[in-house]
C-alpha cells in the first residue's frame, strides 16, 4: 500500500516563556534564557540546585483556564497538556471540519506524570492516614491521563494512548501518530507531551543523580551545551502539542499547513539506564533510519535541533553520532546544529514536541535558533557548527530533531517545508 502523507496543521505550547508556540519561538530565536531561580516550591532549604526552567504564576495561572474545582483535580502536567492541546486544536480548526471522531485520535505522554500529586498525596497519607489522600489521586498522577483528558474534551474517539520513554516521550508520541496516519488508521491526531517535575521529589532525585547544573548564581548561563564549562542540565517544565493530519484531509478542509513530517527513526542503546552509548552508534542508527524513512540524503538536511542537554557524556555521544551520519563541519559546512535547551532548559518528556515546534518555525522563517551560552567550545565536541549565541538567517527546507531518554530510548523526527 502507498503510505499517506502527513502534515502539521496546528501547534500549541506551554513553556516558561508563557502560553503559545509564538512565545517559545520568540524566546529561543532571540537567545533569551527562560532559566531562573525557582519560586513555586516555597522552602528551598537543603536543596543544592535552586534554578530551573520554571513556569511562573505570572505567565500561567490555572484559574485563567479552568474552574477552581477542576484546577484542583488536575496535576500541573495535566493542566499544561490540556492548555497546549486547546491551543493546537484551536490553531488547526480541526473541530470545525466535522471530522469522524473514530478517525481522530490522541497520543500524548509524560515521562514522569503527576510528581506534584505523588508528593502531596504521600504527605497526606503520612499525616492523616493511609486512606486520606484525594479520591482523584490516581487519575491526577498516571502518565496516560493527559491523553485521556484531551480525548474527552475534544471528543476524539480514535487511537488514545500515551508513550512513556523518558526524555524521548513526546518525540515517540509524534512519531507513532505519524505512523498511524500514514497507514490510514486516523485522519488527524493530537500528539505531544507534557512535564511538570520541578518539585521536591523531582529536583531532589535529579540532584542526587548528579545530573543538574549548580550554577545557582547565574541561572540564565547555567544551561550551556557543548561549552567547556558546562556542569549538567537544567530541568524545565511545559507541554508541546502538534496536530498531525493526513494531507488530503487537510487540503479538503482548507487547513493551514505548517510543514510536512517525512521521517521517523527509533532505536535503543542497550547500554546503560542513564549514560548514552559512548560512541553514539545507536543514536546514529536512529538518524539513519529516519533519513531512510524520509527517502532523503544527509546532505538534504540544513538544520538539526539536537537533544543537547548540556551534559558531558551526552554532548559528546550526540556529536559523534551526528558526525558519523552527516559528516563534520569540514565535510558538510552547510549543516547547522543547535541546542535550544540552552535557552529553555530541558522539558524532559515534553522536549521533543517543543523542539518540533522550533524546527517547524525554523523552516517557516528561514532562521536557525542559536545555542546560547556557548562561550568556550569544548574541544571534544568541536566537529560541528553549533550556531553559537546568535541566530543565523539561512534557508531551511528540511530540519531534524533528536530526542534521547534515560533507558537508552532514541527517537528522531524529520520535518520538511510543505509545497
Description:
This protein has 419 residues and is of the alpha/beta class. It has two domains: 7-259, Thiolase/Chalcone synthase (Peroxisomal Thiolase, Chain A, domain 1); 264-410, 3-Layer(aba) Sandwich (Peroxisomal Thiolase, Chain A, domain 1). The chain is 33% helix and 18% strand. The chain has 13 helices and 15 strands. A hairpin with a 2-residue loop joins strand 1 and strand 2. The protein is globular. The protein starts with 5 loop residues before the first strand and ends with a strand.
Taking Cα atoms only, what radius of gyration do you get, to the nearest Å? Answer: 20 Å
Supply the CATH superfamily name of the largest domain: Thiolase/Chalcone synthase
State the CATH architecture of the largest domain.
3-Layer(aba) Sandwich
Question: Terminal Cα separation, in Å?
Answer: 23 Å
Task: Show the helix and strand layout.
Layout: E1 6-15, E2 18-19, H1 21-29, E3 36-37, E4 51-52, H2 68-72, H3 76-92, E5 104-109, H4 115-128, H5 137-141, H6 145-154, E6 160-161, H7 169-182, E7 188-195, H8 200-208, E8 238-246, H9 247-252, E9 259-268, H10 281-294, E10 303-305, H11 312-326, E11 336-338, H12 341-344, H13 351-365, E12 367-368, E13 392-393, E14 398-405, E15 409-416
Parallel strand pairs: 5-6, 5-7, 10-11, 10-14
Antiparallel strand pairs: 1-2, 1-8, 1-9, 3-4, 7-8, 9-15, 12-13, 14-15
Helix pairs in contact: 1-13, 3-6, 7-13, 10-11
Amino acid at each position: 500500500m502507498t503510505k499517506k502523507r502527513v502534515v502539521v496543521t496546528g501547534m500549541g505550547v506551554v513553556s516558561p516563556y508563557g502560553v503559545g508556540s509564538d512565545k517559545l519561538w520568540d524566546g529561543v530565536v532571540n537567545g533569551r534564557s527562560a532559566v531562573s531561580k525557582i519560586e513555586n516550591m516555597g522552602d528551598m532549604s537543603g536543596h543544592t540546585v535552586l534554578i530551573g526552567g520554571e513556569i511562573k504564576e505570572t505567565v500561567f495561572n490555572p484559574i485563567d483556564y479552568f474552574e477552581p474545582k477542576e484546577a484542583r483535580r488536575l496535576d500541573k502536567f495535566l493542566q499544561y497538556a490540556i492548555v497546549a492541546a486547546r491551543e493546537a486544536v484551536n490553531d488547526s480548526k480541526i473541530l470545525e471540519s466535522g471530522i469522524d471522531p473514530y478517525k481522530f485520535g490522541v497520543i500524548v505522554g509524560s515521562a514522569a506524570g503527576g510528581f506534584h500529586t505523588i508528593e502531596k498525596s504521600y504527605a497526606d497519607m503520612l499525616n492523616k492516614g493511609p486512606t486520606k489522600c484525594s479520591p482523584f489521586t490516581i487519575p491526577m498522577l498516571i502518565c496516560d491521563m493527559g491523553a485521556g483528558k484531551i480525548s474527552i474534551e475534544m471528543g476524539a474517539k480514535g487511537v488514545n494512548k500515551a508513550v512513556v520513554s523518558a526524555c524521548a516521550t513526546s518525540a515517540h508520541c509524534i512519531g507513532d501518530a505519524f505512523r498511524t496516519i500514514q497507514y490510514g488508521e486516523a485522519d488527524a491526531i493530537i500528539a505531544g507531551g507534557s512535564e511538570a517535575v520541578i518539585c521536591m521529589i523531582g529536583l531532589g532525585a535529579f540532584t542526587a543523580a548528579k545530573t543538574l547544573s549548580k550554577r545557582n548564581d547565574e541561572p540564565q548561563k547555567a544551561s550551556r551545551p557543548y561549552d567547556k564549562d558546562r556542569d549538567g542540565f537544567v530541568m524545565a517544565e511545559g507541554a508541546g502539542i502538534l496536530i498531525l493530519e493526513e494531507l488530503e484531509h487537510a487540503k479538503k478542509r482548507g487547513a493551514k499547513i505548517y510543514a510536512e513530517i517525512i521521517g521517523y527513526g527509533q532505536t535503543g542503546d542497550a547500554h546503560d539506564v542513564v549514560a548514552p552509548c559512548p560512541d553514539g552508534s545507536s543514536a546514529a542508527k536512529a538518524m539513519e533510519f529516519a533519513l531512510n524513512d524520509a527517502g532523503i540524503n544527509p546532505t538534504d538536511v540544513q538544520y538539526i535541533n539536537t537533544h543537547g542537554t548540556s551534559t558531558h557524556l551526552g554532548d559528546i555521544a550526540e556529536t559523534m553520532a551526528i558526525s558519523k551520519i552527516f559528516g563534520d563541519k569540514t565535510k558538510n559546512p552547510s549543516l547547522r546544529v543547535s541546542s535550544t535547551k540552552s535557552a529553555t532548559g530541558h522539558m524532559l518528556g515534553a522536549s521533543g514536541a517543543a523542539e518540533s515546534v522550533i524546527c517547524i518555525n525554523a523552516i517557516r522563517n528561514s532562521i536557525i535558533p542559536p545555542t546560547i551560552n556557548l562561550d568556550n567550545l569544548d574541544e571534544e565536541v568541536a566537529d560541528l557548527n553549533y550556531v553559537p549565541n546568535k541566530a543565523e538567517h539561512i534557508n531551511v527546507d528540511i530540519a531534524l530533531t533528536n530526542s534521547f531518554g534515560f533507558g537508552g530510548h532514541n527517537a528522531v523526527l524529520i520535518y520538511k517545508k510543505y509545497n
